[in-house]
Prior knowledge:
Layout: E1 7-12, E2 34-40, H1 44-55, E3 60-63, E4 79-80, H2 99-122, E5 134-137, H3 141-158, E6 162-165, E7 182-185, E8 189-190, H4 193-206, E9 211-212, E10 217-223, E11 226-231, E12 234-243, H5 254-257, E13 260-270, H6 275-281, E14 287-290, E15 296-300, E16 307-311, H7 320-334, E17 343-354, E18 360-364, E19 367-371, H8 377-393, H9 420-438
Parallel strand pairs: 1-17, 2-3, 2-12, 3-9, 5-14, 12-19
Antiparallel strand pairs: 4-8, 5-7, 6-7, 10-11, 11-12, 13-16, 13-17, 14-15, 15-16, 18-19
Helix pairs in contact: 1-4, 1-8, 2-3, 2-8
Amino acid sequence: MQRSAIFHADFKSMPYWWEAYRPTAEDPLDLPRRVRVAIVGGGYAGLSTALELAKQGIDAVVLEAKELGFGASTRNGGGVSGGVNIGKSFSGRTIPVEPARVDALLSDGADAFSTIERLIAEENIACFWNRTGRFVGAWTPKHYRSQEARLAKLNEAAQSGAYMLPRERQREEIASDYYYGGMVVERSANLHPALYYKGLLDAVRRRDTPVCARAPVTRISPHDRGWSVATERGEIEADEVVIATNGYTGDVTPQLKRRLVPLASHIIATEELPEDLARSLIPKRRTLADTRRVLCYYRMSPDGRRMIFGGRARFTQVGPETSAPILHRFMTDRFPQLRDAKVTHAWTGNVAFTLDALPHMGRQDGMHYLMGCNGSGVAMMTYLGTQTARKIAGIANYHCSFDAPEFPDHPLYSGNPWFLPAIGGWYRLLDRVDRIASK
């Protein structure tokens, strides 16, 4: 197939989600001279921090470098879970975690799911919230057995409602024989990520908290009364600073940048499919993913007419002329019946991986931070923002397990992920070897 053949005549190099809400700068707000809390980053993490602070009567300002919603908050696939990847580092090295902490991490991951579900209901956010669960396909029989070994712990500590589905029953979940069975997780959902972002933004604005677009922070300096936060649009004094930049963390906070690996995730959306075909692909409208190292994740659009298909076409930022054909091939590997489906939208965004594959919140050099969603950020970033705000307000009634003093770095890593193409190639090779061996 020629590369150009997969693109629709009306193809757009932008997120499909932006058809409903497009990031905007609107009329730039005047920056306040002084606030109790300055929040750097205007995604899910920053907005949820601001929202909870406002509920506690604490004034804040949100500083976004670009348009409101420009980053991963409106670019992700819209899958929502409370999942936490425990024990595996970004490099694949196994990291021992104490059993008691494993339980706490899984429990707080489950609480993250409850938090976003409750917030959407309380703020009446119209974002196509669907608690349909997810199916994680096993790339090999060995992967299936590994999933099976995790099942009891997921259900015990995270109330996941998970169960195994053998390969002979796989078509209950997906119109494909591509996997070796897999795990169904009932306590999972999907939503429209851009409309969820808009709903959070509206909720913050209703409480008169300024959210300032195109206000990139250039310097953060401590002084005797707190902090001075310099932006390209002026300077703000604040008692507390929260860094909520995640996959877009830059040189203003180098001590955090070197603890994060920004990884590009690429997504395509197909044209509207014939109704019978669209309805047959994912019968229960779940979000799907798999156990490959080079992950793919996919779902139907909220109206059930398009396939939204994402994955690691490359580990770095590349244009749609490169990423879209790769994702289209991944999609048709699973669904040969979509070989003639054209791509109408293709886009990419950064997710932030940590060196221990765990989300983190805490304090670094006196500043609060929350980051490291490891590809599962919709619920987790909302949760960490809420927990950080409660910590600042002094009302947290327990110690969040993600708030730990250990936020690992590496002496040979400064924040420039030059090694990603090599890791991507190595992971693809390992996936291929695993698959061949399984046959």
